[in-house]
Amino acid sequence: MKTLIKNGMIVTSSDRYEADILVENGKVVLIGDSIKDAASEVVDAKGMYVLPGMVDQHTHVESPFGGTITAPWHTESVAAALGGTTTIVDFALQSRGESLRAGVEQWKQRAAGRSAIDYGFHIGVTDLRQEVIEEIPALVEEGVSTLKLFMAYKGDLMVEDATLYQTLDRAKSVGALVMVHAENGAIIDLLQKKCLENGQTEPYYHAVSRPIEVETEATSRAISIAEVVGAPLFIVHVSGEGPAQRIREARAKGLPVFAETCPHYLLLTEEELKRPGFEGAKFVCSPPLREEKHHDALWKALQDDTLQSIGSDHCAFSFKGQKELGKDDFTKIPNGGNGIEHRFSLLYTYGVAEGRLSLEKSVELLATNPAKVMGLYPEKGTIAVGCDADLLIFDPEAESTIQFETSHQGIDYDMFEGFPLKGRVKDVFLRGKQIVKDGAYIGSLGDGRYQKRKPYGLCYK
Amino acid sequence: MKTLIKNGMIVTSSDRYEADILVENGKVVLIGDSIKDAASEVVDAKGMYVLPGMVDQHTHVESPFGGTITAPWHTESVAAALGGTTTIVDFALQSRGESLRAGVEQWKQRAAGRSAIDYGFHIGVTDLRQEVIEEIPALVEEGVSTLKLFMAYKGDLMVEDATLYQTLDRAKSVGALVMVHAENGAIIDLLQKKCLENGQTEPYYHAVSRPIEVETEATSRAISIAEVVGAPLFIVHVSGEGPAQRIREARAKGLPVFAETCPHYLLLTEEELKRPGFEGAKFVCSPPLREEKHHDALWKALQDDTLQSIGSDHCAFSFKGQKELGKDDFTKIPNGGNGIEHRFSLLYTYGVAEGRLSLEKSVELLATNPAKVMGLYPEKGTIAVGCDADLLIFDPEAESTIQFETSHQGIDYDMFEGFPLKGRVKDVFLRGKQIVKDGAYIGSLGDGRYQKRKPYGLCYK
Amino acid sequence: MKTLIKNGMIVTSSDRYEADILVENGKVVLIGDSIKDAASEVVDAKGMYVLPGMVDQHTHVESPFGGTITAPWHTESVAAALGGTTTIVDFALQSRGESLRAGVEQWKQRAAGRSAIDYGFHIGVTDLRQEVIEEIPALVEEGVSTLKLFMAYKGDLMVEDATLYQTLDRAKSVGALVMVHAENGAIIDLLQKKCLENGQTEPYYHAVSRPIEVETEATSRAISIAEVVGAPLFIVHVSGEGPAQRIREARAKGLPVFAETCPHYLLLTEEELKRPGFEGAKFVCSPPLREEKHHDALWKALQDDTLQSIGSDHCAFSFKGQKELGKDDFTKIPNGGNGIEHRFSLLYTYGVAEGRLSLEKSVELLATNPAKVMGLYPEKGTIAVGCDADLLIFDPEAESTIQFETSHQGIDYDMFEGFPLKGRVKDVFLRGKQIVKDGAYIGSLGDGRYQKRKPYGLCYK
Amino acid sequence: MKTLIKNGMIVTSSDRYEADILVENGKVVLIGDSIKDAASEVVDAKGMYVLPGMVDQHTHVESPFGGTITAPWHTESVAAALGGTTTIVDFALQSRGESLRAGVEQWKQRAAGRSAIDYGFHIGVTDLRQEVIEEIPALVEEGVSTLKLFMAYKGDLMVEDATLYQTLDRAKSVGALVMVHAENGAIIDLLQKKCLENGQTEPYYHAVSRPIEVETEATSRAISIAEVVGAPLFIVHVSGEGPAQRIREARAKGLPVFAETCPHYLLLTEEELKRPGFEGAKFVCSPPLREEKHHDALWKALQDDTLQSIGSDHCAFSFKGQKELGKDDFTKIPNGGNGIEHRFSLLYTYGVAEGRLSLEKSVELLATNPAKVMGLYPEKGTIAVGCDADLLIFDPEAESTIQFETSHQGIDYDMFEGFPLKGRVKDVFLRGKQIVKDGAYIGSLGDGRYQKRKPYGLCYK
Known about the structure:
4 copies of one chain form a homotetramer.
Chain A: E1 2-11, E2 16-24, E3 27-32, E4 41-44, E5 49-52, E6 54-59, E7 64-65, E8 68-69, H1 73-82, E9 85-93, H2 100-111, E10 118-125, H3 130-133, H4 136-141, E11 146-150, H5 161-174, E12 177-181, H6 185-197, H7 204-208, H8 212-229, E13 233-235, H9 241-252, E14 257-261, H10 263-267, H11 293-303, E15 309-310, H12 343-352, H13 359-373, E16 391-401, E17 420-430, E18 433-437, E19 440-441
Helix pairs in contact in A: 5-8, 8-9, 9-11
């Protein structure tokens, strides 16, 4: 079975050119001028951009958190597909007392046969006993080449500095990359208690109890510890200027420090948390949304390569029944928002169309760099001969507005409700199979396959 | 006439994959897995890298300077070709009292029919009368989309701040990019006189009279003036930490400031200027070579995207008869060194093979970014369907040593004499025509064509 | 004649203690607990602060500028006295074609017998011929140990970089300190012309045509040139964050760079320039007033010792007949504002009383450091045995409001009109003679004496 | 009983003048020109500097540590006196499970009647239970207005971030100032174990296991936590560039962060730790000695007010029997060196005489600022009417060399052995009583009195 995509404007992280693409056996096999292949199904992409399928390195699908669980694979993976994302790297979590492998297995089982798109897993380390350290090499062998540690969530996910050091040290020896959620959980814990003691229970106090200084601090700490170890480091969801500046300084020193931000830190502010009727809870995520001045700081950090990628940190809870758990106490609001569906369209609209980033740079931030840093390249993240035919045909002329009613994420609201969008994800191919056609999902759950990811440094150079 | 390059490992600034390339009418028309085309001449690139022809944005070929003239097109363009460079952007110069166009025409005439590779021209502005300002739009139309101003060489090429401002202002309106040689010429002039008054006439005083502070200063000044105008800026030949840091800070502020360094600032130090027997004169260039600590600062500035390209600043004078003009007075030594031939091999050896930069990043720094920033993309600077078939087949396994005797530049020494090299430029194609075969030049002078370059912003995003 | 000041709280830049002060022959001769001296006139300072007479290092009294002249010695020196300032260092100016000495002599003659307070002179260098350079040693001998250069006012006062270098070089050799007005005059000149061409003639365009980038640039340039020379440097009237940051970085590198800001940059914004009815002209000074965010940056720069002093830059023109010269063209508005009278009270109110600076720090910024850096110490700038009995008795409890009608400066408005003030200058002594009593001037014009100032480094360590 | 000190050159942190000082009842009562007082004992200080008695805010006298104890009050206080130090603030330590008060009481008892000079105590918090927090207000009342927390020494003195936050929060409310030893103890613990596992047991591995990154990190963390609390912070013994830069940035942001360095970080390097025969152990202190490049960084940080004081961190163990405890394991070497005796002379020699700091600045760093920041001012730290007559008569002409044999500290070596010294501490007065005469100690143990210190902010402004 072959497919020929004709006349599109192919855009990768470095190039932009009009050509035809021939797909065979799920792979791109030929790129050329006026390819003729009678045996193929032909898709005309005249006037369209043909982009690599997007890679989202930061999702939490069907993940237990605080006594409830995020939206499931069968909705979220379809939403991702409709948004042009063909691969996600989801966060599996170790349970206390359990092995890392058990966490990965649990997540694999949940995804198996229920995902519209390809997927891999990070493993979140929460309980680093000696035997757990010893699991790391085998996990890397099996394609789980990234570990995540939480410096926040004291008493739950938070790890001590010694754990961070030891994980970095062991990970380095086998090419695993350590990712950190950088907020000082011990200080947040005290600030939360102080708020609650003062009767400050509303969603806005979520932001008050997590000031950016605790993120700047933890970012700085993680960088210093990685520097001592001599290991690479990935900082997730950078929310503003202080942590971005620390990362910039580390990179200027030549340290292999990588980082992402997320659409909501670029586009939303902490003012949302003040919405009446507990609606602010819809915007409770960690780190919290910040003051508006940080938007500009983050766009600049994307432009000057301080931040190399944008993940969605999609961690979707419904307002009813889930966010409401924190009605009387903001610390009980499940942390997380949505973004898996419109990540690319938001960036196209507010980044590319507004002149902040080129389309090439957007492909780099949302597809190529995530694929490279996460060990999915060259199969994923670009359009080149030999790569997986994960392709997105994007119509730059269409316009729409984000509305919960027409979104596909499995929750009851959308953080970006009412945001106008430029362009439209028209068609999506996953390893050559068309799964979105003219904006409608036409694939099958189970199309998605588990991706073994390569160790650090084999893809990103 | 078609050529098929088979089995090579294609490397662009973002991708690396094994594929065949079909070239027709000087263009890349097909890239694919196991291409069969009976009508083609076949080149086997098994085990080789296939790279875009390199672009050198900073050369001074057959250029009058201080009463003498640099090495000519028929030697330097061949040397470039043998080193894998298929396009240069050379610096034409306005003469005082003359038009910009007259400068460009003079350079065009010298190059016509005598260049082994493609070429374009920047125009160096030295005398900005009102009618000269008015020439800028027409020059951009004709493909001279970059202007260069000298903040150094007082009494000769140096322009005042007002000229810099006005040029930036006019250039901005028509998409021309302004490049600056950033050293404070007025201060250098005083320091030179002071040295000479003290009887300090040897080559080393060239470095003494041009301390890095005057480069840091002028870099900072040019950035501020461009910031006031709201224009993009390109800083040539950054030689060390101070100026690099100012550029880093400007980029962190979101300013469109671009910059290059050169191989000699990465690999040689001011100690060379102390060589006995006036041999130090061979290393007299401006800015001067610096202390060794700056090497590390510049490699880091390449890594963190503070510097986006590496030009050779090839400006070759022989020792005999040319450098010797300054035997009794270092200010009379023609300024300049060589680099057009081994620029890529030096970067491959000391950047890629030593683990400082990936091969992809090297392609970006030496081909893709120069092509994009200089308005030569997408014809030049990458390998993609539709681009010029400027291709370099590189054998990574070969080893050699730079020796004047086996170099091809038209002067009587080589600044990098004795430097071991990894890898070898095996074959080179210019718009589909093979001009280097197994390391030997097989082209004709006159193969090279003048390139009309696009305005700023049409290529680099 | 002896005076005994009893029971006051003496405050110097480092100390605060209750004691009596015995003054004899114009000098402080004894400081002690319960001094008894029958032969003395006794002043009771119970509940009052006893401070050193303030030193204002930046005034322009009776100075020709743009075809008119600033307010004269007999008014401004009295206003200064009433505000607690007992010494000023005024800016004499060289005329083009004339000697430095001629400038100093002209200023000396104007001040002679007409000043209520002590005074010295800087000399503004505008025309640095070789014979002018040779004047510097003799001027330093005569107590003119500071030279000022203007990087602004193109075609008038502006000097070239070479002049700056040469002045720094010669000054260094004889212990003269070079002061610079750091704005890029060449760029301002172009921006002014652009505004006028666009019909933008109102006072606000004064600010538009002097953006802070041109001040940051010139500050950076002056620092780099002084760094090359190895000379100390003093930056006058720093107006905001950019230049302050460059000074901070220079000092962190160990460079002997000093700087001042002025009350108006701490307390007023460019919004004043938009006042209707040409009233904005009252606020036209150079550098211009800035956006409000710079206030905080400057207070912090005072706190962390980036800026070591506060001068008034008093340069007072009346609105009628003087500021009005620029009615149709903002470039013709005489540049300058007032501040000689309320400099200390403004700092006390908005610095000390609002908790930004201690009273000791204010004494340091307004008296001790100016005296030390300007070579007036130990006679001026502190209260210690042997120093001149220049004393200010300050009542911290009084309150008032600045009103033009009750001010004493010789112009027809006050930039700080309506500013509430805390505290009151009650009594002032000049070399032991009381010249202000209970807020009223009781001295004689001619009390003030010319002060020979010491070379750089003899006072400030 | 009165004393008249005649003809000396009095130097304070801001002033320098020749005058006589009359001392009565332990206080300075009169400073003046040619004081005559028949009833007084007269000391002629012609040609001498008369300085405030130095204040050392960082000592560990007779302090248990690692199973042994530092040199005792009766030797160390005499050594301090002979070096010109008249007040120390020593570190009392809470024992785990005990109250803060118990720690203070224990130290008070050890000092009582056995100190040659005045003394106060900080209290080191190691075990912050709720009832311990509640002790803080009462301790401040009793003059223990500074608390110290250790971020190093895991499993022993180290406190968690939550403890640091809570201490800062409570301390702030009652005007106590929190001091931190900023090194990341958790990482050091791992690095130490790694060294020992590798058989790296020699003293040099003390430095290897405490790289400056862990100090930079902890400094950054402490600053961020204090920033969140809104409390002032004091960083002890800053050892090099990284931490100094973080403090500089904090102060530039307007944060009330204070810091000290110590003589050994300015004058000794980690090379000392490599001395053969286990002699390196003599130089084992924490943070460790650093590379030489940090010396320059620290001198600059003193010059630009990034660091406001120099404490000795005197913590003296003998080589025999004490340092030897770590013969087979560097982690068992008692941490600490000496400095209480020659702190001022070292600074005079290597700071003042070499032109790095003025004598006034040295007085500020070693006497005035320590007195002010530690709440001992105005009784201590300056020479002014009403202050304690703690006076040091210093002969600037004498020269000597530090030799263990002629030193007075109660240990068997001196870290600064062989260092040439300029100047000599000739006479010392403690509250008017002469305790050192012509370089010999003539006081009595028990002359020293406990000093109740004032809360933060009452002295330092």
